[in-house]
Amino acid sequence: DQQVKQNSPSLSVQEGRISILNCDYTNSMFDYFLWYKKYPAEGPTFLISISSIKDKNEDGRFTVFLNKSAKHLSLHIVPSQPGDSAVYFCAASGGNTPLVFGKGTRLSVIA
Amino acid sequence: DTAVSQTPKYLVTQMGNDKSIKCEQNLGHDTMYWYKQDSKKFLKIMFSYNNKELIINETVPNRFSPKSPDKAHLNLHINSLELGDSAVYFCASSQFGRETQYFGPGTRLLVL
Question: What residues of chain A lie within 8 A of the CB of B92, using their CB?
Answer without folding.
Answer: 43
